[in-house]
Design goal:
It contains 6 helices and 6 strands. It is an alpha/beta fold and about 150 residues long. InterPro entries: Rossmann-like_a/b/a_fold, Universal_stress_UspA, UspA.
């Protein structure tokens, strides 16, 4: 089995997602892989209202990113964390993409021909997360590549 060549990780800027980014950065550095850091964002405030309603249904703390500037700041900060982590990623791409987190991550994995997707476990616990779904659960079911779910929450 060969080492991973391209690793994709998602972030929303939360501490939980940055733990996953740091782990992905260390793994990419150890493998000599390219790291692609992705932040899915909502283009407008009206979409944020939809996200709040979904959060209320799921009962988890989701941090939707609204607008391209905050998304770009989020991936920039995450890239710094990934480079500083452990062995540190050397080849890092930053992507801010309009869309839902699950659809965006699956699309970026395909477009970059990634062979590993890294996500945090936030949202997988609890009855509502299991019934309604969560980003890590949904991408794990839909991904065509290996998925590493990093334990980022208690």
């Amino acid at each position: 089995m060969s080492a991973y060549r391209t690793v994709v990780v998602g972030t929303d800027g939360s501490r939980s997602s940055l733990i996953a980014v740091e782990r992905a950065g260390a793994l990419a550095g150890a493998c000599g892989a390219r790291l692609v850091i992705v932040c899915a964002y909502l283009p407008s405030r009206s979409d944020e209202r939809e996200a709040r309603r979904a959060r209320a249904e799921i009962g988890e703390e989701v941090r939707p990113v609204v607008g391209p500037a905050p998304a770009e700041q989020t991936v920039r900060a995450a890239a710094e964390a990934a480079v500083a982590a452990g062995a540190g990623a050397g080849d890092v791409d930053e992507l801010a993409v309009v869309g839902s987190p699950v659809e965006t991550l699956i699309d970026v994995v395909t477009r970059t021909q990634a062979d590993l997707l890294v996500v945090g476990n936030r949202g997988m616990d609890g009855t509502k997360g299991r019934l309604v779904g969560s980003v890590p659960g949904d991408v794990t079911r839909r991904s065509s590549v290996d998925v590493l779910v990093v334990h980022t929450t208690d």
